[in-house]
Design brief:
Elements: E1 2-13, E2 16-28, E3 33-37, H1 44-51, E4 59-64, E5 67-68, H2 74-84, E6 85-88, H3 100-110, H4 115-128, H5 144-156, E7 162-166, H6 174-189, E8 193-197, H7 201-204, E9 209-214, E10 217-218
Parallel strand pairs: 3-8, 3-9, 6-7, 7-8
Antiparallel strand pairs: 1-2, 1-4, 4-5, 9-10
Length: 220
């Protein structure tokens, strides 16, 4: 599903290159569940953003479903991301001007799903996450934990092939966090590929493979 070849990310400051990722070689098969761990500043979130086509590598090759992501124009990247990828951000990234219902509906609009089906899918996910009572509220009216639940619901509503999750349970209390991890496990068992960044050993254990990053390198 995914192949990274010698992916590097760096920033130029005058004549000095500051590396965030170094020579990342990675193959992800469809249906895998991978946990990415490592200290703060090791490049975990940057790797996730490159995989999610929200950032581009400075050098190297990225193949997604046999397509060359590293040579794609931005419009095609955006289309590919919307069609196949659900992203759970650490900072939620909900749209402030939209209600919970409208935030959840947005990925379905991108996929041109018809109105009656959209209503049914949003109703189902509101119920599943126990947030029906919040559907007409705006993000600023929700607690951090509630915003996190909405962000996760939005990431999975369109049944993406790949879910990328950056600290998915970071703002949830332990019972909610366990529920979300069990939900991710069940999606994975049904065939969804999942890559999560986490500091939690318990959450990492849900992955079938653990990838450790340090100073931008994958540790063997």
């Amino acid at each position: 599903m995914i192949q990274l070849k010698n992916i590097e990310k760096y920033y130029n400051n005058k004549s000095v290159k500051t590396f965030v990722l170094r020579k990342i070689n990675l193959e992800v098969k469809e249906g895998e569940f991978i946990s990415v761990m490592g200290p703060s500043g090791s490049g975990k979130s940057t790797l996730l953003h490159i995989l999610g086509m929200l950032d581009t590598a400075s050098s190297g090759e990225y193949y997604f479903l046999d397509e060359q992501v590293h040579t794609m124009p931005e419009k095609r990247l955006t289309g590919l991301h919307k069609a196949f990828i659900g992203f759970v951000f650490q900072q939620y990234h909900l749209i402030d001007e939209l209600t919970v219902y409208e935030n959840l509906e947005t990925p379905l609009l991108y996929q041109k799903i018809k109105s009656s089906e959209r209503q049914s899918m949003v109703a189902e996910i509101l119920d599943r996450f126990n947030i029906v009572a919040k559907k007409d509220l705006f993000p600023f009216q929700l607690s951090g934990g509630q915003q996190q639940l909405v962000a996760i619901a939005r990431a999975i509503i369109a049944k993406p092939k790949l879910i990328l999750a950056d600290e998915p349970t970071g703002n949830l209390h332990s019972d909610q966090g366990k529920e979300i991890m069990e939900l991710l496990r069940s999606l994975n068992e049904k065939g969804t590929t999942i890559i999560q960044v986490t500091h939690s050993e318990d959450n990492a254990a849900y992955g079938k493979r653990i990838l450790k990053l340090r100073d931008g390198w994958i540790e063997n």
